[in-house]
Amino acid sequence: MRKHILVATCAALALAGCQRPGEGDVERAIQDVLSGDENSLNEIMMNVADPGEAVTHFRRTLETQPDSIAAQRGLARSLVRAGRNSEAVPAWARVTAHPEATHEDRVEHADALIRAGEWKKAEAVLQTIPPTHETYRRYRLEAMVADANKQWAKADSFYETAAGLTTRPSGVLNNWGFSKLTRGDFKGAERLFTEAIRYDPSLFTAKNNLVLARGAQRNYDLPVVQMTPVERAQLYHTLALTAIKQGDVSIGKGLLQEAIDAHPQHFDPAVRALQALEARG
């Protein structure tokens, strides 16, 4: 592909007219094309390629271009994609120490720290970002940190701001709902999970959390949401376990049987749970 780009560039330069560029201009034009081609490759490696292959690619690039912030950024993002969070943290620290680092780089550094469980360090990084940098990702992380600190009013404010800064708020609404669930605000959690599902009907985590919120209120009916037969069985299973933990054992047994009946194949966890209950009498 690169060969074709070079040919096209040289042909364009040859047809440019009477003002023929000098050799320096030609070299700069070719380098610009090659640079653009490399940027495209970096984007592909960061966003589409296998994460392990992307890590190898960027590490090789850094061997010859150790000061390239694009390669440093690519390595850090690829390590996060690969789930290698302990390696991603120092990689992002190197990016944020670069003279060309941006506020968004610092947001990604904080994200890597949270993934690695280093909440206090993540909070410190977020505090270095000016309040004028208002993005969905920044406020989502601010909300998660406030949650970890049990600063509920601040968490609610950040979650609300984050949800308003994206056209796809299902994930942050689900997080916000789970925060409400852990605080014991089951009605508030139910409302947020329902809203998350409305934005993304395929988000099973929100469906499962919605069932937990309803079950905590001893409402053991499945919510009226879009679900596959397998999801229906899994949600009945979640409801059953919630009922049993709350002492509603007979209801739990019935829900386990519903889970077994709803599943299109054999649902071994539900079968084992029901057998264990029946063995206890």
Automatic annotation (TrEMBL):
InterPro entries: TPR-like_helical_dom_sf (IPR011990), TPR_rpt (IPR019734). Transmembrane segments: none annotated. It holds the Pfam family TPR_16. TPR repeats lie at residues 170-203. Gene3D superfamilies: Tetratricopeptide repeat domain. It comes from the Bacteria. SUPFAM superfamilies: TPR-like. Keywords: TPR repeat. Coiled coil: none annotated. This is Tetratricopeptide repeat protein. The lineage of its organism: Bacteria, Pseudomonadati, Pseudomonadota, Alphaproteobacteria, Rhodobacterales.
